[in-house]
Amino acid sequence: MTSLDIAFMTVLWNRILERFDKTSVKLQEKSLDLSVAVKLLKSLREYIGSIRNNFNDIEKVALSLSKVISKKLEQYNDLDRKFGFLTYFKSITEKEIVDMAKNLGKIYPDDLDCDIFPEEMIHFTKLVDEQDEEGKIKMPSALKCLQIIHDNKLNSVFRNVEVAYRLYLCLPVANCSAERAFSKLKRVKDELRSTMKNPRLNALSLMTIERSLLKEINTDEIIVKFQKKKRK
Hints:
Radius of gyration: 28 Å
Number of domains: 3
Low-confidence stretches: none
Structural class: mainly alpha
InterPro entries: HATC_C_dom
Largest sheet: none
Shape: extended
Pfam families: Dimer_Tnp_hAT
GO molecular function: protein dimerization activity
Domain HAT C-terminal dimerisation: 158-211
């Protein structure tokens, strides 16, 4: 099926199933009157019949949705081109691994050492082969690879590889998971704000008392240094 076909069927079935769901929930109510139930089912039948006359409207929505899907797919493909080798390294050559690792290192120069990361990655693929002596794992997941590093306490040996996998695993596949994460983060922030301890209060007091000196400090410089600091 093409992306337009998928979009068309998505719009069509979303309309139909949404009405079926609401009707089904209503029909399960103990207090529902029989005559109301009959009318509800008849109206649902009429609604399904009326959809046949609205295909042009559905097609317009489907075209719009298809464009959105195509754009999202392009973004996912772009991310896969950057990070994909972290999971399908067993099916590509060492040269391809090195090239892709170098490319990822250039994209994230503050997090990955472009000179060391490619060789680290090759070394890590050999370690995965050693871990899988029976050859059962054809395509290890990113999470499995990260677990191998952590379970064997090899963070210092594969520092760049470990960071690369963390970057990859932090990418939200679905928008809803990201929204839930930010929602949870907001709750954590609120909790932290409501339990402000003495050290922070003392620091804030000192900053207020010495505000004239604080104004002379170049905070932009500090922020830039913090941004350039590599994640460990």
